[in-house]
Amino acid sequence: MRDHFRKLHFSLEKSFNKSPINFSFNYTLIDPGVNDISLISNLQKFSPTKFTAVITGITGENSEQLLRTISLACSYLNTPLISFSSKSSLFSDKYRHKYFLRTISSSDNEMPIWELILKQLIWDKITIIALNTYESQLTLTQLMQDHSNKSYQVMDYKKLPPSEMELQEQRQERIGNMLKEIKARETRAILLYVDKQTAELVFKQAEQNGMLAEGWGWLASEDALAAENRPIGLLAIRPVQKDHIEQLDEANNIVTRSIQNLVEDEKSLDLKPESLFLRMKSYQKNGRPFFDSKGRIFSQQYQIINVGSHRQLIPVGNYSFDQGLSLSTDKIIWPGPSNHSPNCFKKKTNLKVVTILSIPFVQARKLRDPNDACRSAGPDELNAEVECQRYNGK
């Protein structure tokens, strides 16, 4: 990566050689424990001019927390930030992360694809299992909104605490009890939005409860798809990703072109910092907008993945902003394994027949004299009376 930075630096210097812009290119490694104040101070050293943009690609443990710190620091400095590593829905919030852009799709951008898949599978009832985190709530908001205009209904929403919040045995017991509750109900289509570690526990307990057999349908997030024990018949969506070098070059191209176009169009360097961000946000590729209103990439492509009979990952469909959803349902292997799409809703057949002893109510009166007889021998006459065999009046 360092060698590529050097090549990129040389290319940019050549690009700006005849430009009125005093260009500088810097790269640095950030301490994972950096705080907001020290980060702002470091960024100010690197960005003495108004036309500054930060490109970042952070992976590994605590990467999202570090990226939040960088984004908030850039917001404070009115500095545009492009990330090519984070899918977190949190950064779609432009109130907190005002100058954040990304060259990969965010998690909340994937929910419309799930809706299209549910519609094509004719699954109108689903159960959602997700982590009880702010990220999950942001991502699943669209699925949980008013269903009056949707083709499906969320019958149940099960929330699990993050893995670090409880012991392994407690978590396994919690998941087991949760799945038993789901099994006792009628819904057979489950959307699983959890991390890899939680997904492995869910699949383990689901197998023990017979919920990976024929008749069940499982849709999963990209992280859940990475589970070692992913079951046969699982469906998931996965973005078609470029490698880090390609993503870095793309982010850099957005920044440099935006700066050049801004200077050429405005004929002045006395511009506000927001001008660069707006120019970057309006960047177009192949004549079409690259970012949406929340700074998310428009043109991301996805694959719909099916776990085959040998647990291999098999593409069975694609999605793109231009072409929409293309899903080959006849190629999907379902849990069982089976070639038949499961019904999302299974009515209970264990009906109970209850017989209640009933004593019919009759209008009766006591005979004044035991020797009295009916006033008429004809039972069809309206004034006929018969002797009451079981008296229930006073």
Account of the 3D structure:
- This protein is an alpha/beta fold and 394 residues long.
- It folds into two domains: 2-107 and 242-289, Rossmann fold; 122-240 and 301-331, Rossmann fold (3-Layer(aba) Sandwich).
- The chain has ten helices and 13 strands.
- The chain has helices spanning 2-15, 36-46, 63-76, 111-121, 134-144, 168-183, 196-208, 222-225, 244-266, 273-281, and strands spanning 54-56, 81-83, 100-102, 125-131, 153-160, 189-193, 217-220, 235-239, 284-285, 288-289, 302-307, 313-320, 324-327.
- Helix 2 (36-46) crosses helix 3 and helix 9 (244-266) packs across helix 10.
- The chain is elongated and about 125 Å long.
- The model has no long low-confidence stretch (mean pLDDT 79).
- This is Glutamate [NMDA] receptor subunit 1.
- Residues 50-225 form the Receptor ligand binding region domain.
- It is found in: Membrane.
Task: List descriptors.
2 domains; alpha/beta; 13 strands; 8-stranded mixed β-sheet; Rossmann fold; 394 residues; 15% strand; 3-stranded parallel β-sheet
The fraction of residues in strands falls at: 15-25%
Report the strand count: 13
| CATH 2nd-level architecture of the largest domain | 3-Layer(aba) Sandwich
CATH fold call of the largest domain: Rossmann fold
Give the overall silhouette. elongated
Biggest beta sheet summary: 8 strands, mixed
Terminal CA distance: 99 Å
Domain tally? 2
CATH class of the largest domain: Alpha Beta
Broad structural category: alpha/beta
Order of helices and strands: HHEHEEHEHEHEHEHEHHEEEEE
Strand order of the largest sheet: 5-4-6-7-8-11-12-13
Please give the count of helices.
10
| Helix content percent band | 25-40%
CATH superfamily of the largest domain: Response regulator
Radius of gyration: 33 Å
**Uncertain stretches:** none
Average pLDDT confidence is 79
